[in-house]
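Q: Fold this one first, please.
A: Sequence and structure below.
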Amino acid sequence: MSNTTAQLCIAGGGTGGHVMPALALADAAREKWQQLHVSFIGAERGLEAKLLPERGEDVLLLKMHAVQGVGLIHKLRVLLWEMPHAVYSICQHWKKQRPTLLVGVGGYASATGVIAALISRIPVVLYEQNAVPGLVNRTLARFSKRIMLGFAEAQSHLKSKQTVHTGNIVRTDIADIQWQQHIPPCLLVLGGSQGARFLNQTIPQACIKLHNQGKAFNVLHVCGGDEKQRAKIAATYQQAGITAEVMTFCSDMPNFYSRGDLMIARAGAMTVAEASMVGLPCIFIPLPHAADQHQTFNARSLSDKGAALLAEQAHQDAGSLATLIADTLFDTDTLQNMHQACCQLRVQDAKQRQLNVLAAWLEVVS
C-alpha cells in the first residue's frame, strides 16, 4: 500500500460492548475517508476472533488473557510473558503496514496495541464507551492524544485534560426509530447477547403476577442461550395466558425497539445509548459483577435525570419488579416524562464528533 494512504488500527475487544462500538467507528471512518485502510488487533479468546473474520476484516489475533479477577501467578504470566510477546508480535506485524493512528477501544487486547503504538511513536486515541472508564483506559489515558467518551460522566474518573465527549455511535436504522405508545402496551426484556439468568427467571414470574391482577400487555423477550432455554421461558408465559414472543437472539433490533413501551434490560453502554436515542423508557437492572460497576454508572447517567429507572438486582424479586413494572408500563404520564428526558440526553451527532477527533491525524494523509 502507498505510504500516503491513511491507516487506522483499532485495538481491543473481548465482548460485544467493545467490539460493536469499534466496528461502528470503523464503518463511519471508511464512509468518511474512502481510501482509508482499517485493521484490527484483538484476542483469540474474544468475540472479535469470530466476528471480524466473518466480516472479512484485517485482524491480528493475539493470545491474551485478562488480569482482573485472577490470581497473582496468572497476572504475572500475563504481564511478564503474554503482554511483551504480544507487543513484539504487533511491532513485527507493523513492519509491513504501519498505522497512521491507533484507537484503543478497551479490553485486554487494547493495552498491547496501545503499548506497541507508543513504542513505535504512533499517535494513540482512546475510546471509552462506558460512564466509568475501564482499567486499561484509566491506566493509559495519560499517554494518549485524545480520549473519546461515550458518556460525559466518565470525565470525572480520568485525570487527563484531553477528553472529548463524543457519545457512542448508534446505527442509523435504530436512530431512525422513535418511541410511541401501544395498546395494549408491550414490555421488552433484553439481557444482552448471552442472556441474563436473573431476568429470564424473574421477569416471567413478575409478568404472571401482573396478568393475575387483570393487566393487559404483551411481552417481547430476548433470552439469549439456546433453544431449550427459549422454549422453557416461552412455555412459562404461554401456560399463564400471557401473549409473549421469546427469542434467543434478535437480528432486527429496530423492529424490537419500535414495538416496546417499556424495556427492562442490563445497562451495557450500547444498550443505554440505543434506548436513549430511541427515547425508550427503561428499567435498568445492571449486571452486579460488571467490572468497576460500569453498568450501574451507565444506568445512572439516565436515571439521575429522570430518563430511566435503576433497580439493583440484589434488592429485587418477582413481587417488587411486578410493582415497578405496573407503576411504569401502565402510567402514560410516567412513560411520556421518561421519553422526553431521554430525548434531551441523547447524542445525535456521535458519529461526526468521533470523526472530528480522528480527522486531526487521518485527513493529513488521506
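Q: Good. Now the second chain.
A: Here it is, same layout.
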Amino acid sequence: MVLTFLIVMFVLMMNFVWRYIDDLVGKGLDGSVIVELLCYAMANMIPMGLPLATLFAAIMTMGNLGENYELLAMKSAGMSLLKILRSLLVVICIVAIGSFFVANNLVPYSNKKMYSILYDISQQKQTLEFQDGMFFNGVDNLNIRVGTQDPETKLLRDVLIYDNRNISGNMSTTVADSGYIRLSDDKKFLLVTLYNGESYEQTRNSSWHDESSLRRSYFKEQNGAIPTSGFNFERTNDDLFTSPQTKNINELDHSIDSLETLVTVSTARSYDPLLKEQIFQEDISILPTPDSLKVDIDKTAFQKALYEDTIAKLSIRERQQIWNDARTSAASSRATFSWDESSSKESMNQLHRSKAEWHRKISLPVSIIIFFIIGAALGAIIRKGGLGMPIVVSVLFFVVYYIISITGEKLAIEGSWNAIAGMWLSTFILAPLSIFLIYKATNDSNLFNVEWYYAHIKKFTDKLGSKLEPIFRKIKALGGKIGGVFKRRPKSDKNNQTEES
C-alpha cells in the first residue's frame, strides 16, 4: 500500500505541477516556497489518492496470493475468503479512521496555506529579464526596450525607455547607447544607470491639445532609482482565505447553521417587501397628489376608481411628473430586489458547498473500505499480481467512481439534489457492487475467466442451433416444394416468364 500510495501521489503531483507551471516559472521564486507549495498540494490530494492506492494494493496483494496458489492453499485448509481478509480489514479500518482526521484537520489547513501561496505567487511580477529587441512591461507605466545584452557583464546596449508615471500626463522618453538596469537588494527600487544618451520630456497642461512643449536634454551618465512593487515575494495573512474547503467538521456545522438562518432572512427580505411594500401596497396613494386634486380616499373599490379618474383630469406636465416618479420608484425597487436576490443566491450557494464538504469528509473513510472490498474481490478472482492487469482494472473502476462522484457533487453544489444524495451517490452505487464481487470471489466464480465465457457461449449457441435445426429443415422442404411447382408449369414466351418471375 505504501508503494501504490507513492505512485498515485506522484501522478497527482505531476498533474498539479503542469497545471500551475506557468505561474511558477520566471518569477524568481525561492526553492523553499515551491517545496512548501508542493507539500501543501500533496496533503490536499490525500483524499483522492488514498482510495485509489487502497484499490491498487488490495488487487495486487490478493492477486499475488492467487497467482502463487497461496490463496488456494488457505481455502483448502478450510479458511473462507472473509476469514482470510479479516486481518486486512482491520488494517483498512484503521487507515479509514486515520483518513477522516486527515480530511478533517490536515486538508483544511493545507488548503488555506496553498490558496494563500498561490495568491501571493499570482501577485508577484516576473523577474527583471530583458530579451534582445523586445519590450519589457514588468513595471507599471514603464516600457523598456534593449537592443542587445551582454550575458556576462549584463551591459545593455541601445536602450529605449518610455516613462508614463507622471500623474499630470507628462511623458518622457530616454534613449541611451548603453547602461545597466537592475533591482535593488530589497527589490523595492529599479536602479538605472545610462551612458551617452538623450532625454525627451513632453510637458502637457489642461489644454494639451492646443499647447504642449517638448524639452530635450543630453547626458553622458544618468543615474536614477524608480520605485517598484511586486518583485519581492510577500506573504498574505492566511485567515483571509476562508471557504468550505478550509474548515473542519465543527466549523462547517457552525457555518451551515448560520447560512440556513441567513438564507431564510435574505429570502424573506427579498420577496416580502417587494410584494407588500412596492407592488401590492395597502395604501394606493404611492405618489404625492397635487393640491388641486386632493380627495379623501378610502380603501374601497369605488374610491380607488374615483382616484384613478382624477388622474385623467391632470395636465400633461402633472402626468409627466407622476410618470417620472413612478418610473424612479420602480427602478429603485428593482435595484433593491436585485441586490437582495444576489445576496440570497450567494448565501444559498455557500450553504450547498458547506453541506457538500461536510459529507465529503464523512464519505472518505467509507469509500476506502468499499475500494478495499472491491480490490480484494477482484484480486481473488483475477489471480494476477504485479503492476500489469491490477492497474488496468483499478484505473477503470476509479474512473467510473470519479465520474459518478463529480456528477453527484455538481448536482449537490447546484442545489438540484440533496447533499446526502449527491455526495453519497458513488457509495450507493459501488456498495452493492462490492457485495456482489465479494460473493463471487467467495464462491470461486469465473467472473473474469475468458475461457469460461467462451465455453458457455458455445454451449448456448449449440443448444440454440439444435432447437432451430428442425425449423430450418421444414423451411428447406417447403422451398423444394415451391420450386417443384414452378418447374412443372409449361414454358411460355420471354415476356410471360418475366411476368411469372
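Q: Anything worth noting on the second one?
A: The CA atoms of residues 6 and 357 lie 25 Å apart.
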